[in-house]
Amino acid sequence: MSLFKNLWVEKYRPTNLDDIILPDDVKDKFRTFQKEGKIPHLLLVGPSGRGKTTLAKIIAKELVESSYLYINASDDNGIDTVRGKIRSFVEEASPFDKSHKTVILDEGDRLSPEAQDGLRNLIESFQHNARFIITANNGNAIRDALKSRCHVVDNFALPKKQCLVRVKHILDSEKIEYDVENILKIFDDCLPDFRKVVEALNISSSTGKLIYKKESTDVGKLANVVQQSLANKSITVEVVRELLIKKQDIFESYEDFFNLVHTVFYESKTALKDKRKVTILIADFNENIKFVKDVELSAYALLIKIKAVLFPETLK
Ligand SMILES: Nc1ncnc2c1ncn2[C@@H]1O[C@H](COP(=O)(O)OP(=O)(O)O)[C@@H](O)[C@H]1O
Ligand SMILES: [Mg+2]
What we know:
Distance between the termini: 25 Å
CATH architecture of the largest domain: Up-down Bundle
Shape: globular
Bound molecules: adenosine-5'-diphosphate, magnesium ion
Strand content: 5-15%
CATH class of the largest domain: Mainly Alpha
Structural class: alpha/beta
Helix content: 40-55%
Number of helices: 14
Strand order of the largest sheet: 2-3-4-1-5
CATH topology of the largest domain: Zinc Finger, Delta Prime, domain 3
Number of domains: 2
């Protein structure tokens, strides 16, 4: 994940309770937990981009100060994970050691019913030395038996005032010029999803000034992010590829997608000679795409070639 650090969503993921945006009463509740030094098992429920994963990590690191195990249930959702990885992690905890082991189960609504039952059993068996933090977009997918063993936090209505403070902090840190009107336009289009807000800021600040144009489609946004990542030396092409593969479902073909990347490149600050080289590469790709067996491989090669045009040393 650290490879993504240059994208603002990762770079500006809050690492402490002061920085994360939360409704006041929710933040107060966590401060009380912190003061008392006691954290219940938690179920954090809300739509994406509200800070659930971020909050889970802050709790594990800042509030509990324990070693923690992070599992994303979208990748690991079966009973084997519960019986294997999770169980052996919590078993390591000594009953004499006061510090708890913490397990974060991100996107816990993806856990199979069997895995949820297994988890409930683990919670009971290791009540004294392990804490569980489960996040879910859809609270209804969490079984009642599991829910009832957790303290549920489902208010992630992020106050606009705090959002504005955070956005100003990000823009000031990046030394971006802005007027508040543009920020409010982004809020109108993106809130209550704060991840979208940060992505929009990132995409709209490439000139050093915040200029927000609403992207017409998700594809446009993705092309923009990919273009930026390609043009940023410290982001490797493998990261760009990963991004592309993850989002494959939102565009029809690689051909369409690279045409869009091309358009975005042409409007960017890239040097004209580099724009021309990239144009030729994309045109070649389009011409040959009918004949290639493995389109994904060719798309990957194209990413490497584009990167090498902009940063020749990456191929050395
Ligand atoms: N409440 C929040 N406070 C500050 N930043 C946030 C908040 N919610 C989302 N973000 C931004 O969006 C990114 C994704 O947040 P994340 O915690 O993964 O959301 P979720 O798990 O609810 O989908 C974070 O890295 C951060 O940049
Ligand atoms: Mg999340």
